[in-house]
Design brief:
Layout (H helix, E strand, L loop, with lengths): L1 H35 L6 H26 L7 H18 L4 H25 L4 H20 L4 E2 L3 H9 L2 H5 L7 H19 L1 H18 L4 H27 L1 E2 L7 H11 L11 H20 L4 H25 L1
Antiparallel strand pairs: 1-2
């Protein structure tokens, strides 16, 4: 018992250290970019960072559940786009009320996650292969359904308020934080509660720690795995609504590449790609790190291709750091 208790305390200290290091890295990035360019700390740029974090952050929070199981989901970016395209079709082409379009987009995300989870659990395909295939399917369907053209929303003023309006501004004058940020923070809190206070959260960690032992203990592993991928799909749907609301259109060509930034944010925040450990708070910090890094490079006029190189290096470093952390444990 004593050894188990010591091991548990060691893991807790390691997780806390990871979060502190991630938060410290975020502060260092902000300081460096602020000193490098006076434009970085302008209010308009801060709003831009927070808004981009809202979309990527929602994706990252959703895929955190999947990665804790030891799985991966490469389709989250294109699922986000597919959900926004479906919402656009329902609202602009079928003339349905905005609320029904939003619900349709969310349902689309859940359906894609449900299919991915079923393929992985029932057909026993590796998550990498299953979600890679789903990435191509959702990307193709988005282009086919939209006719490869952006879908602009008929009631743009109402739809744009989903992300760009400010409910808090009406409650507290002068506190005009965009709804997208509020939704991101709210969904982060909800995800954290699910992960730490519910059966789904407990089985989430159990699957990542030892799936076979979980199965032998009488747990319906397939059912919970499908539920976890469906939950991740719901977060993709939310991200799709936020993205299309912010742009006032569903852009079928967007999406691919978002999965890498989201997964990098999750790993930077301390969630292990090997499964069994992770926190939503760490993912939120990781999402802000990725947004600040991308925005800072853009402010410094770093070419797009070199921005991609830097982000790739960050991803490799984050995975390597995770590997080292696992070896020490």
């Amino acid at each position: 018992m004593g050894n188990k208790g010591a091991k548990g305390r060691s893991l807790i200290r390691s997780d806390a250290t990871q979060k502190i290091m991630a938060f410290g890295s975020l502060i260092v990035l902000i300081i460096v970019f602020s000193l490098s360019s006076p434009n970085f700390f302008k209010f308009s740029n801060i709003v831009s960072i927070v808004l981009s974090t809202a979309v990527n952050g929602v994706l990252a929070v959703g895929v955190t559940f999947v990665i804790i199981t030891g799985g991966i989901d490469l389709s989250i970016g294109t699922t986000m786009t597919f959900a926004s395209v479906i919402a656009g079709v329902l609202i602009s082409f079928w003339k349905l009320p905005v609320i029904l379009g939003v619900l349709g987009g969310l349902a689309t995300g859940v359906l894609v996650g449900l299919i991915s989870g079923t393929v992985i659990s029932k057909m026993k395909l590796p998550p990498f292969i299953a979600t890679l295939g789903m990435m191509m399917i959702t990307k193709g369907l988005s282009l086919v359904i939209s006719g490869t053209k952006p879908i602009y929303f008929n009631d743009a003023k109402v739809y744009s308020k989903i992300a760009m309006g400010s409910v808090l501004g009406k409650i507290i004058p002068g506190f005009d934080i965009p709804n997208a940020v509020v939704i991101f923070l709210l969904m982060s809190v909800v995800a954290s509660l699910i992960l730490t206070k519910t059966s789904l959260g407990r089985y989430n960690f159990a699957l990542g720690s030892n799936e076979e032992a979980t199965r032998l203990s009488g747990i319906n592993v397939d059912k919970w795995k499908i539920a976890i991928y469906s939950l991740s799909g719901l977060f993709c749907g939310i991200a799709g609504i936020l993205m299309s609301s912010r742009l006032n259109s569903a852009q079928p060509a967007l999406g691919q590449g978002y999965e890498l930034e989201a997964i990098a944010a999750v790993v930077i925040g301390g969630t292990s790609l090997s499964g069994g450990e992770g926190t939503i708070l760490g993912t939120v910090i990781g999402a802000f790190i990725m947004s600040v890094l991308t925005n800072g490079l853009r402010i410094l006029s770093v070419k797009q291709e070199w921005q991609t190189v830097v982000i790739g290096i960050v991803v490799i470093f984050a995975v390597y750091a995770d590997s080292l952390r696992r070896r020490k444990k």
